[in-house]
Amino acid sequence: MQHSVATPSVAEPVQNVSHWKRLHDEGYFASHPWYKDRLHDLGVPEICSRLDLHPTHTLLEVGCGYGRLLWHLLPKVRRVIGVDLHEQPLAEARDLLAPRGDADMRVGDGLSLNVVESGSVDRAVAFTVLQHMTHPGATEYLREMKRVLAPGGLGLVNFHDETRERRTILDRPGEQSSTTSPAQIATMAERAGITIERIERQSLDHLYPGRGYLWWWLTFS
């Protein structure tokens, strides 16, 4: 007799967060290939060109991990706040960033920015983070990033997309990525109450030749 294998259902945001916390608990990121070089500059030129960073700014990074990106950006601003859902990478980030300047690392709940005060940051960025969230979860983070921005502030996020298939986050263990189209970004922006400043396409052929991967960069206020 053949037994069918149940297909995992689409994850709710809280389920997805639980899976990511488990990955941290199991030491998944200790050997992750993207973290072997703790200080590579992937995304740094794009972020600097879009956020117009200034020495008076307070910069928030959502999903800061081990502090790689903030290591590059901290000298360009007055102070940084990093939020992640697990203490383990934040401990390393504190040690990495301490010689660079004023860096405040905070453990969040993976669902909101409840550890950041409203109107307290000038710039907010989430790099290769929202692609690992459900669309409702990412929408809530856009709303929260808007909340913590001071008047005149800017937010910047990127979304993963593919030219050949569409993917969503399922309720199962392991690292997953979702795809997001410009139309879906517009819908999320409307629901989050943010103002779209720009949506820009970036091919990822230099990283993944021939696979049709790309990023959509969303700058918002």
Q: By CATH's scheme, which homologous superfamily applies?
A: Vaccinia Virus protein VP39
Give the biggest sheet.
7 strands, mixed
Q: Per DSSP, what share of the residues sits in E-state strands of 2 or more residues?
A: 15-25%
| Average pLDDT figure | 94
What does this structure look like?
The protein has helices spanning 13-25, 44-51, 68-73, 87-97, 135-148, 182-192, and strands spanning 58-62, 79-84, 102-107, 121-126, 149-162, 196-203, 213-220. With 221 residues, the chain is an alpha/beta fold. The chain has one domain: 3-Layer(aba) Sandwich (Rossmann fold). The chain has a 7-stranded mixed sheet, sandwiched between helices. The longest helix is centred in the middle third of the chain and has 14 residues, at 135-148. It starts with 12 loop residues before the first helix and ends with a strand.
